[in-house]
Specification:
Blueprint (H helix, E strand, L loop, with lengths): L1 H20 L10 H16 L5 H21 L4 H22 L2 H29 L6
Helix pairs in contact: 2-3, 3-4
């Protein structure tokens, strides 16, 4: 009886780990730089970046991503990390304002607001999904 139970447990373990091993690991291996390069293509089209702008925007985003990653590695509490991250974001935005024209900057701010609203809606949907139904 113990052998049968042990065999079933072993078979279950093997069968459940196989799908996990087959999962696509490309997203897990991405760094901030990879993510930045991917997002730059969309920004180039959406903002109408021309000439040197894509390279300049990419450089600004890579510098910000590295600084943000370095800040997160420090392991500071969120209360201490938040104001430092805001300073980094303000520096990034100041650099972007120098590269983008006013129309492009306005469009970038609108895209950020859209993304923020979408994230909030997704978070709210998850919150409502996991919340048990109200019982009276």
């Amino acid at each position: 009886m113990k052998q049968i139970f042990l065999s079933i447990a072993l078979a279950t373990a093997c069968l459940s780990t196989a799908p996990m091993a087959a999962q696509d690991k490309t997203n897990a291996a991405k760094t901030g730089g990879d993510h930045t390069d991917q997002g730059l293509e969309g920004l180039t089209d959406q903002l109408g970046l021309t000439g040197d702008q894509p390279a300049q925007v990419n450089a600004i985003h890579k510098i910000f991503a590295k600084k943000a990653k370095d800040l997160k590695v420090l392991g500071l509490p969120k209360e201490e990390q938040r104001p430092k991250m805001k300073v980094l974001k303000d520096e990034r935005d100041a650099a972007l304002k120098k590269v983008l024209n006013p129309a492009q900057w306005t469009k970038l701010e609108a895209l950020r607001e859209e993304r923020k609203a979408a994230k909030k809606a997704e978070k709210d949907a998850q919150k409502n999904k996991t919340r048990p139904p109200h019982q009276e």
